Amino acid sequence: MEAVYKYYDTIDSTNLEAKRLAHAGAKNFTVVSAGEQTAGRGRSGHSWISPEGVSVATSMLIYPEGIAMDHLPRLTILAGVSVAEAVEELYDLATQIKWPNDVLIGGKKICGILTELEADKGVAENVVVGIGVNVHHRKDDFAPEIRDMATSLDLELGGARASRKAVVEAIWRHFLSHYQAFVRDGGQLGDILPVYNSRLINKNKRVRVIHQIKDFCGVALEMDPEGKLLIRRDDGTVTAVDSGEVHVRGLYGYV
Ligand code: BTN
After folding, report:
1. 132: closest CA among 43, 246, 200?
2. Which end of the chain has less neighbouring CB within 10 Å, N or C?
3. Taking 90 as the threshold, does the pLDDT of residue 96 lie above it?
4. Is 20 within the bounds of a domain?
5. pLDDT grade, residue 254 (50/70/90)?
6. pLDDT in tens, 119-133
7. In this structure, is residue 236 part of a structural domain?
8. Number of structural domains found in the chain
9. How far apart are CA 80 and CA 113, in angstroms?
10. Signed CA dihedral, 227, 215, 232, 201: sign only
11. Ligand 1 centroid – CA 112 distance (Å)
């Protein structure tokens, strides 16, 4: 398994470009990175701002090998752990993960991940795992409404300058090593689950589970092998919640 790297100074969205490349027959594990995105995409239909030269915007195209379609969203979990590992390896900064896949430093978001899947008649044709990392941002580069919840590698390094190229390469190296095990295990999270849970910032915290029909509160326990977050409700019962259906918000701030 080897990544093939492509770099663009400016692109609408690296996820969109990876999909276009898939339609043009690009190789498995093609990585598209950009210095600037003009139409970056975030989760839940939000946009994702990647201003020129300050972030990492990178996406990997994957043709999934014999993994059941409902296990493929778990690739986002692999990506989150890979970002955490890459940042720790390169810069010795401690990272946490907010379920399902925000990577944080000191409780502030450093990275977002958007996994998109294209299927035909119930069969997955390609998956694009897109990762945005805040690298050179100063505090005022973040919009006022997210300024207290977001950070960048440079801000955390307090003066030293991180390398976007090194970050991209380390992330995908870790990811491919996890992906190999994931394919071997037929789409199970396997050994990555305890690694993920050891970084889970929601663990033992009181959270509000925001659901379309009815919100509820409880204590987050850990992520289960299917990628669901286990919540102990106030009546003592445990409910597994799915990231496709709910958002989890800390009762005291972002986490
Ligand atoms: C989130 O909302 O937290 C997910 C943000 C994902 C952003 C990345 S940047 C690279 C890739 N290309 C996109 O358009 N989005 C993802």
Report:
1. 43
2. N
3. yes
4. yes
5. low
6. 998 889 999 999 999
7. yes
8. 2
9. 7
10. positive
11. 6
Q: CATH number of the domain that 237 lies in?
A: 2.30.30.100
Q: CA 84 → CA 113, 231, 253, distances in Å? A: 12, 24, 22
The model's pTM: 0.94
- Cα distances (Å, whole numbers) of residue 166 to 86, 95, 132: 9, 17, 14
Residue ending a domain, among 179, 199, 219, is: 199
Residues 238, 124, single domain; the answer is no
Q: What's the CA gap between 169 and 5, in Å, rounded?
A: 9
Question: Measured between alpha carbons, how far is residue 142 from residues 14, 48, 185 in Å?
Answer: 20, 11, 40
CA-nearest residue, atom 11 of ligand 1 = 130
pLDDT of residue 252 exceeding 60: no
Q: If you take atom 9 of ligand 1, which residue's CA is the nearest one?
A: 132
Residue 82 placed within a domain = yes
Task: Kindly state whether residues 138 and 54 are assigned to the same domain.
Answer: yes
| Ligand 1 atom with least separation from CA of 34 | 10
pLDDT of residue 2: 93
- Ligand 1: nearest atom to the Cα of 43: 2
